[in-house]
C-alpha cells in the first residue's frame, strides 16, 4: 500500500491549467512533429495542433500533440534510450576496471619475463652444463608460475617444491659424474634434502615470499575482471513494464503536452530512476566491499608482499641457491652418502666440464618499484571514485543524461504539468521503493541476475580477503579470458599436461568450485570472519530456488 496524500496531489493537478498556457486556442504541434521526425518516425497522422487526449494510456489525458501510436513509439524509444544510457555509464566503469587490470597484468608479466630472460642470458656462462643440461627445469618453473597467475588449478607451493627437487636431482648427478646414481638413490637423497638444505635457506624463503606475492597478484588481477563483468551483466538487465511507462512519462510526455522546453523536475527524475534501478542499487554494499578489498590488496602488493622485488629477482635467488650447492658440494655429498650409502663408481668417468669450478657471479635485478607505486596510486584513486557508483547512478543519469531541472525549480515537468514536484525522494534499494509514487515496484521479487551478481561480488571479496592474509584460494581456469590482456607466453602441452606429485606441499590451498570469477572488505579482513566461498555459492543456489518458487 502506498502512503501518500493523493487527494492533495490530485487537487494540485486539477488546479493546473489544462494546456501549457492559459490561452484557449489550440497550440501548434510543430515542435513535437520535428522531434518525432528526428527520432526516425513517419509524420503521417501526426497532429498539426493539439487534440483531446482521452486516448492516452501513459501521459496525462489533457490536450495533447500525441496520438496513441505516437505514445507507443515514444515509450519504446524512451526505453531503448534509457537502456543505452545505462550501458554507456556501465561501459565507462568497465573501461576503468579493464584498464587497471591491463596495466597491472602487463607490469606483472613484464616482471616475470625479465626475470626469465635474465636467467637465460646469464646462466650459460655462470654454470655451463649445470644449466645447459637442465634448461627445461627452469622453463617449466616459469611456465608453472604463469599458469598459476592465470588462475589455473595449480598448487604454487607444490610447484616450487617440485622445481627444487628436480633441480637437486639433476645437479647432484652432474656434480658427481664419477658415480652411477640411480633413481632409487635420488629418491633417498630427496628424503634427506630438507635436513641437509643443499640450497641453503633460499627455497624456504622464496616459497614464503613468492606464494604471498603470487596469491595477492592473481587475486588482484581477477578482482578487476570480476568487477567489470558484474557491471556488464547488470547493464544488460531489462527494464520492467512499469519502469518503461515511468521513463516515457518522464522523458516524452512533456513533449506530448506541448512543453518541449520544460525540463523534468530533479526530484521527480530521481524517483523514477531510483524505482527503475531499485535492484541495481542493492549491489552497492557488496560493490563497496570489493573496491575496499582491491585497495587493501593493492597496499599489500606495493608494501609487505613487495611484488616488484620478489617476482623480479626469482632468477637471482635461483643463482644464489645453485651457488650454495656448489660451494658446499663436498659437505652435502658426504652427508648424502652417510644417509643413503655410497653409490657405485661410474664406468663413464667424469668430464672436464663437470669438474670445472665457475667463479661466483653477482646478478643484478633492475627495480621497477616506482612503476608499481604509480600503478597502485592510480588504481586506488579510481577504485575510491567507483565505490559509490551504484547509489550515485540515478543522480548522475538525471543531471547528465535526462538533463533534469534544478531541485528548487517550480517551473519544471512534474509528471502531470509544469510546476513544483511535491513528493519526497525515495531511499536507495529495492526495500525503499515500497511507496515510490512514480514506479510500481514489487519489493518481494528481486531480480535474479542482479542477485547472482551480488553473490559474485561476495565470492571475489572473500578471495581478496584470503589473499590479504596470505591464504591461497583456487580459481577456475580463466586463461581464455585473460589471454587477450597481455598474459604472456603460452604454455606448451608437454609442460601444462604434467601433474606435480613428487614433493608434498606444506599447506593446501582452499579450493572453491565457484562461478568463473569473483567475493568482505579487505581492510578489515584480518579481524573479520571470512565466509567460505563454497558456502556462499550454496546460499546463492538456495536463494535462486526460493525466488523461483515464490514466482
From TrEMBL:
Biased composition, class Low complexity, residue ranges: 481-494
Ranges for region Disordered: 475-526
Xref: InterPro entries: Glypican, Glypican_CS
Signal peptide region: 1-20
Protein location: Cell membrane; Secreted, Extracellular space
Gene Ontology molecular-function annotations: fibroblast growth factor binding
Annotated GO CC locations: cell surface; extracellular region; plasma membrane; side of membrane; synapse
Family as reported in the entry's similarity comment: Belongs to the glypican family.
GO biological process, alphabetically ordered: cell migration; negative regulation of fibroblast growth factor receptor signaling pathway; regulation of protein localization to membrane
Origin organism lineage: Eukaryota, Metazoa, Chordata, Craniata, Vertebrata
Chief localization: membrane
Function comment: Cell surface proteoglycan.
Pfam family, one: Glypican
Gene transcribed to yield this protein: Gpc1
PROSITE patterns in the cross-refs: GLYPICAN
The name this protein goes by in its record: Glypican-1
Membrane topology term: Lipid-anchor; GPI-anchor
Keywords, ordered alphabetically: Cell membrane, Disulfide bond, Glycoprotein, GPI-anchor, Heparan sulfate, Lipoprotein, Membrane, Proteoglycan, Secreted, Signal
Amino acid at each position: 500500500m502506498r502512503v501518500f496524500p493523493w487527494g492533495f496531489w490530485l487537487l494540485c493537478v486539477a488546479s493546473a491549467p489544462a494546456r501549457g498556457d492559459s490561452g484557449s486556442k489550440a497550440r501548434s504541434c510543430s515542435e513535437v512533429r520535428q522531434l518525432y521526425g528526428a527520432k526516425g518516425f513517419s509524420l503521417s497522422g501526426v497532429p498539426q495542433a493539439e487534440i483531446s487526449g482521452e486516448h492516452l494510456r501513459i501521459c496525462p489525458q489533457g490536450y495533447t500533440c500525441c496520438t496513441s501510436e505516437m505514445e507507443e513509439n515514444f515509450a519504446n524509444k524512451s526505453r531503448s534510450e534509457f537502456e543505452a544510457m545505462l550501458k554507456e555509464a556501465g561501459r565507462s566503469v568497465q573501461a576503468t576496471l579493464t584498464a587497471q587490470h591491463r596495466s597491472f597484468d602487463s607490469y606483472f608479466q613484464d616482471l616475470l619475463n625479465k626475470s626469465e630472460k635474465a636467467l637465460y642470458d646469464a646462466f650459460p656462462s655462470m654454470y655451463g652444463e649445470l644449466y645447459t643440461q637442465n634448461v627445461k627445469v627452469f622453463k617449466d618453473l616459469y611456465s608453472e608460475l604463469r599458469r598459476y597467475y592465470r588462475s589455473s588449478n595449480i598448487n604454487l607451493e607444490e610447484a616450487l617444491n617440485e622445481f627444487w627437487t628436480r633441480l637437486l636431482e639433476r645437479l647432484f648427478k652432474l656434480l658427481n659424474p664419477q658415480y652411477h646414481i640411480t633413481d632409487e638413490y635420488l629418491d633417498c637423497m630427496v628424503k634427506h634434502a630438507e635436513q641437509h638444505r643443499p640450497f641453503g635457506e633460499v627455497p624456504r624463503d622464496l616459497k614464503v615470499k613468492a606464494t604471498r606475492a603470487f596469491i595477492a597478484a592473481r587475486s588482484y588481477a581477477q578482482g578487476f575482471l570480476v568487477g567489470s563483468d558484474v557491471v556488464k551483466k547488470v547493464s544488460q538487465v531489462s527494464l520492467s513494464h512499469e519502469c518503461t511507462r515511468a521513463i516515457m512519462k518522464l522523458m516524452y510526455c512533456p513533449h506530448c503536452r506541448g512543453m518541449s522546453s520544460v525540463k523534468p523536475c530533479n526530484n521527480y527524475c530521481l524517483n523514477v530512476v531510483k524505482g527503475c534501478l531499485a535492484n541495481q542499487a542493492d549491489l552497492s554494499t557488496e560493490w563497496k566491499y570489493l573496491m575496499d578489498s582491491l585497495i587493501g590488496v593493492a597496499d599489500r602488493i606495493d608494501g609487505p608482499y613487495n611484488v616488484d622485488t620478489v617476482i623480479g629477482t626469482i632468477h637471482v635467488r635461483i643463482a644464489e641457491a645453485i651457488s650454495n650447492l656448489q660451494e658446499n658440494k663436498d659437505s652435502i655429498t658426504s652427508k648424502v652418502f652417510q644417509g643413503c650409502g655410497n653409490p657405485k663408481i661410474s664406468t663413464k668417468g667424469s668430464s672436464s666440464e663437470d669438474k670445472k669450478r665457475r667463479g661466483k657471479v653477482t646478478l643484478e635485478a633492475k627495480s621497477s618499484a616506482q612503476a608499481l607505486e604509480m600503478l597502485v596510486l592510480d588504481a586506488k584513486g579510481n577504485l575510491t571514485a567507483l565505490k559509490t557508483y551504484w547509489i550515485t547512478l540515478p543522480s548522475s543519469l538525471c543531471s547528465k543524461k535526462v538533463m533534469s531541472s534544478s531541485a528548487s525549480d517550480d517551473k519544471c515537468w512534474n509528471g502531470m504539468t509544469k510546476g513544483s514536484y511535491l513528493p519526497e525522494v525515495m531511499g536507495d534499494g529495492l526495500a525503499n521503493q515500497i511507496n515510490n509514487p512514480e514506479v510500481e515496484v514489487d519489493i518481494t521479487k528481486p531480480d535474479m541476475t542482479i542477485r547472482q551478481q551480488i553473490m559474485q561480488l561476495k565470492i571475489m571479496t572473500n578471495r581478496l580477503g584470503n589473499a590479504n592474509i596470505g591464504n591461497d584460494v583456487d580459481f577456475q581456469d580463466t586463461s581464455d579470458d585473460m589471454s587477450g590482456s597481455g598474459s604472456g607466453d603460452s604454455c606448451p602441452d608437454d609442460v601444462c599436461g604434467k601433474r606435480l606429485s613428487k614433493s608434498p606441499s606444506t599447506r593446501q590451498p582452499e579450493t572453491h568450485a565457484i562461478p568463473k570469477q569473483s567475493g568482505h572488505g579487505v581492510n578489515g579482513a584480518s579481524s573479520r570472519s571470512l565466509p567460505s566461498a563454497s558456502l556462499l555459492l550454496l546460499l546463492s543456489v538456495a536463494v535462486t530456488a526460493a525466488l523461483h518458487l515464490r514466482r
